[in-house]
Amino acid sequence: MISSICTVGNYEYGFFWHLYNDGTIELEVKLTGCLTTNALPVGEDTPYGQALAPGLYGPHHQHFFSVRLDMEVDGPQNRVVEVDSVPEPMGPDNPIGSYWKTERTVLATEQQAQRQVDPTKGRFWKIENPNVENSVGEPTAYKLMPGENVFPMVHPDGIWGRRGAFIQKHLWVTPYAPDEKFPAGDYPNQHPGGAGLPEWTAADRSVDNEDLVLWYSFGAHHVVRPEDWPVMPVHHIGFKLKPAGFFAGNPALDVPPTQAKHCQH
Ligand SMILES: [Cu+2]
Fold first, then answer.
1. Rounded to the nearest whole angstrom, what is the distance from the C-alpha of residue 189 to the centroid of ligand 1?
2. Which candidate among 147, 168, 177, 241 keeps its CA 20 to 30 Å from the CA of 249?
3. How far apart are CA 264 and CA 6, in angstroms?
4. Which range of residues forms the domain containing residue 101?
5. Is residue 84 in some structural domain?
6. Half-sphere exposure (CA, 13 Å, Cβ side) for 203?
7. How far is the centre of ligand 1, averaged over its atoms, from the C-alpha of 170 (Å)?
8. Spacing, Cα 178 to ligand 1 middle (Å)
9. In the chain, how many domains are there?
10. Is 195 domain-assigned?
11. CA 155 to chain centre
């Protein structure tokens, strides 16, 4: 596990990268800290937050993260494929209504690769190496599996929406460029909007069989609870990168058994 903690204003954000024996990489983000509070006349209610104590409420808010994933699956040249699961209509070919299939869409350019999560389709994204065949004759691949996520509540034309435009899409893909590091640009508090990902991807560069960077945006939706006051219990969100056709079988089968930490007698 590789971890760090970042203090931003009233919050603590813990970033925990878990590296598992089965080849899975998980980013777990832990959120805690003290709520922002506003004044609320005693006896009044507000649709924009939750009363916490006499004269105090916690406003509804969201926390968004962007993770820059400089991918290299089995070599430098990769592509991204969106995989949706789709039930077949009932009929003679699907008499008991249990057949469903997966549909693949190659995201070939930066504009095509601006995507949203869709749990109604079990959506995930495969990062494939089209130049290397796996044990069943398909491209070697990892998949990006979204965890908890949400759509932004801020208007895209407002000041926050313009400066943090990366939150308007859960997935972005760009060709690797060493100076493209920060999804809201180098000066997120000092520009009128549009810097970073929207600016770079306007060129609509190819991301098919290139050296790729994936940008995954994910948000914690915080409708405040009285239980978050005065110090919030930890909330966990994150995502996984899982091998999906990278190995020929379960790579964790030969892992030695865990040794007991305490003696038996
Ligand atoms: Cu919060």
1. 20
2. 147
3. 41
4. 53-219
5. yes
6. 10
7. 19
8. 32
9. 1
10. yes
11. 20
Residue 13 has pLDDT above 80, yes or no: yes
Q: CA 116 to CA 168: how far, in whole Å?
A: 9
Distance CA 19, CA 199 (A): 33
Å from CA of 20 to ligand 1 middle: 29
Q: Residue 183 sits in a domain of what CATH number? A: 2.70.98.20
Look at residue 228 and tell me if it is in a domain. Answer: no
Q: What spacing in Å lies between the alpha carbon of 113 and ligand 1's midpoint?
A: 29
pLDDT in tens, 48-75: 999 999 999 999 999 999 999 999 999 9
Q: Fill in the amino acid letter for 235.
A: H
Is 103 among the domain residues? yes
Instruction: Give me ligand 1 centre to Cα 52, in Å.
Output: 14
Neighbour-count burial for 25-59, b at 16+ CB within 10 Å, e otherwise: ebbbbbbebebebeebeeeeeeeebbbbeeebbbb
- Nearest Cα residue to 129 out of 71, 55, 198: 71
Distance 229 CA to ligand 1 centre (A): 11
The C-alpha atoms of residue 15 and residue 28 are separated, in whole angstroms, by: 6
